[in-house]
Design a protein that fits this description.
single chain; 285 residues; alpha/beta; 9 strands; YqcI/YcgG family protein; Uncharacterised_YqcI/YcgG
Amino acid sequence: MERGNAGAFGEVRDSRPDPLAFEAGDWRSRVIAGRRTGAAVSIPAWLATSYSTLRAQVLDPAYPCFFGTIAERRGEMFYSFVNGKDTCELPATMQTFATLASQPQYRRNNLAVFFEPDAQPLSHSAYRELFWAILQQLHDVDPDARADEQPDPMEEAWEFSYAGVQMFVVCACPSFRARRSRNLGPGMVLLFQPRSVFVDTITNKVIGREARNEVRKRLDAWDEIPAHPDLGFFGDPGNLEWKQYFLEDANVPAGDRCPFLKRMRQTHERDHAAAAANTREEEGA
């Protein structure tokens, strides 16, 4: 699927965050807001409650994704937040995270983006539309030129990426009832997991199927519904990553068309340049 670039967030400057020492025992030191981190960030009052809810659930011994449990316990998580629905800082936040995730010491870190809880939780379909709109807007302003050359989401090789970092994305929101593993608090939470998280740092190989199958078994025990039929493993024949990002609360397969539309910025720029050149040639003839 393809679409033209619609830079809803505006362009993002390519600047790198200053080297910082993040404290494993202090979650506030690992908060990112645009180009700011830690003490430089003004944290909203509602964030502490949202974070505490996520932490309590993820650290439960029975929580299905022990990768997330280990990351939270070791302080290998970064956090960010969105007040209301104001996502204007999110592209800069994502670029800061991508820059950090590209460094060896942070290659196993995830990013949790907390959204301010709504006075009344939205419907499941409303959260779905919001989720895909945010991913689309991020993709449309991705500063990495290679974003124009990504596979189509309907191809097995596609994974969401930003600033050159491929990431598996999980949307958790209050509208999940039976699928408890996807309800992490009073507001929507987006979890961005770089593909490096799933690679063993010693063998440099993708974490074994046995470990991933164990997560599926734990899901069956934690959730009030069997694992969703769209869940699969990256690279397996027939597996499509986008179908796993936002699940239904019932075991209903995702539709046949991905809501995410691959941008065509470079193609459009080339076409525009070619048209302009043709016009100049015709005017000079």
